[in-house]
Amino acid sequence: MVVDSLDGPVTKNEIQSFISYTQTLNPVPTNEHNEWVQGHSGENLKAMALVYEIAPKKEILDKTVSFCDTLLSIRNDLSGKRVIWTGRVDPVWPNQPNANPIQTGGEQGDPVGHLATCAKQILQTCAIYNEVVPDGDPHHFGKTYLKRAKRYVIEADKTVDQHILKSLLTLRNGKHMYFSNASPYKTGLPVPWNQQMMFDYGFMNLAQAHELLKDAPERVKLYDQIVKSNIDWFFKDGVSRYTDKAHLPADDWGYSMPQKTAEDCNHGSLDVAGVYRLYASGRYGIHAQQLTPIANTVMDVVPLGGKEYAGRLNGTSGSGNSKDTKQLRSGYLFTAQFKPQAYQQMMADAGIKSGDSTNRIDAYSRFLWVKHERSRGNASAARD
Fold first, then answer.
1. In principle, which of 43, 72, 218, 333 could form an S-S bond with 366, CB 3.0–4.6 Å?
2. Rounded CA separation 316/297 (Å)
3. How far apart are CA 356 and CA 248, in angstroms?
4. Which residues contact 368 (CB under 8 A, 6 or more apart)?
5. Closest by Cα among 166, 320, 339, 325 to 255
6. Does the bond joining 258 to the residue before it have cis omega, within 30 degrees of 0?
7. At 360, is the secondary structure helix, strand, or coil?
8. Distance between CA atoms of 45 and 118, rounded to whole angstroms?
9. What pLDDT does 68 receive?
10. Which 3 state secondary structure label does DSSP give 274?
11. For residue 294, what is the enclosing H or E element?
12. Which domains, ranges and CATH numbers included, belong to the chain?
């Protein structure tokens, strides 16, 4: 995928290079190792959805549909296998006494988000409602784009109703997300922020899809209330605020409540990408001033010099998810919108350079998004 320039509008050549690249991609029919979350299939879907918002090309949408069909077809009730979307054996849920206990968590949110996002993008494209999807409907999910979108919404709601809000989550203290007492993972504890963003991904896009369908106002209200409650919780109680070494406001937070410091940069990248997704929707009252301190953290605290990045948001490093890295994680690229003076450096640190090319679809799609927003004058104080 080519980078014609870092500034100016996204070019036709850049979009076409993205389309050409996506045509070589194929979905993986399993969610082992979180393939549909942080794995290739999940990142491919998020990238295609992002670029479709910039350039609603049918080639991108059709590839997205092919991925979503595969995703839905491997859900345990449709595949005939006792395997959940995390690619692991079902945990011991109520009425499943013979299942094997295993950790499962927010990874259940991303598949819902993928289906809901694709449905929403079809529903935003009225001209194709009655066109036949050119894939032959291999899984019998609906021959036309509109039927396919409606099926995705129905099945995503089913996952929410029959698993996520029934067995996996408990909503407390004004709809804050906790894992339920039946959950074998973090039983009864607050959902970690990165996993909250996975659930929010599903809830937000389902709310938007139902708004377009005009069919379920109570669902829209509930989904929005959950997202709003939890993102407000993050900014009100989850974040530690301080002045960084550049004498600018900066933020730190923990992996989950009640921790408020030392989030590792691996999960932090997922946190930031999720927060930005909610900001970009314009639905939840998030302002650029709330994201600017995060951008300062990314560029004033995390860099260690040269091409070295700390493993934690507080500038320290450890092992595993807290190990230092040689490249800026792509979730942080969204924050370049709020620190324009660091834009070129941030892109370079993620391998995005003018006149060059990349095969990192996550970084490239986020670069295109920030470039698009900058060309529209949405840098720094956007959407306030």
1. 333
2. 12
3. 33
4. 10, 14, 15, 18, 50, 51, 54
5. 320
6. yes
7. coil
8. 9
9. 97
10. helix
11. helix 288-296
12. 12-375 (1.50.10)
- Strand pairing class (169-172; 249-253): unpaired
303 SS3 class: strand
Please state, in angstroms and as integers, the Cα–Cα distance from residue 302 to each residue in 33, 317, 362, following that order.
Answer: 27, 10, 20
Amino acid at 124: Q
**Which residue type, as a one-letter code, is found at position 347?**
M
Question: What Rg do the C-alpha atoms of the chain give, in angstroms?
Answer: 20
Burial class of residue 356, CB neighbours in 10 A (0-12, 13-18, 19+): exposed
CA 58/CA 128 separation, integer angstroms? 9
Q: Summarize pLDDT for 140-190 with one digit per residue, the tens.
A: 999 999 999 999 999 999 999 988 999 899 999 999 999 999 888 899 999
DSSP E strand stretches across 214-356: 239-243, 249-253, 303-305, 308-309
Tell me the per-residue pLDDT of 51-99, one tens digit each, with 9 for 90 and over.
999 999 999 999 999 999 999 998 877 765 544 454 444 444 444 433 3
Distance (Å, whole) CA 136 – CA 132: 8
Amino acid type, 366: R
Residue 197 near residue 277, CB atoms below 8 Å: yes
Question: What's the rounded Cα separation, in Å, for the pair 174 and 319?
Answer: 36
Q: Which two tokens stand for residue 125?
A: 């494209």
d(CA 335, CA 373): 12
Tokens (6 digits) for 129: 């409602």
Which amino acid is located at 380 in the chain?
S
Cα 191 to Cα 170: distance, rounded to the nearest angstrom: 10
Q: Are strands 249-253 and 303-305 parallel, antiparallel or unpaired?
A: unpaired
The SS3 call for residue 235 is helix
Stretches in the chain below the pLDDT threshold 50: 82-84, 86-103, 381-384
Q: Is the pTM of this model over 0.90?
A: yes
Q: Which two tokens stand for residue 233?
A: 């919780």
pLDDT at 310: 96
Environment class of residue 179 by beta-carbon count within 10 Å: exposed (0-12), middle (13-18) or buried (19+)?
A: buried
Using the CB atoms, write b or e for 70-98: b if 16+ within 10 Å: bbbebbeeeeeeebbbbbbebbebeeeee
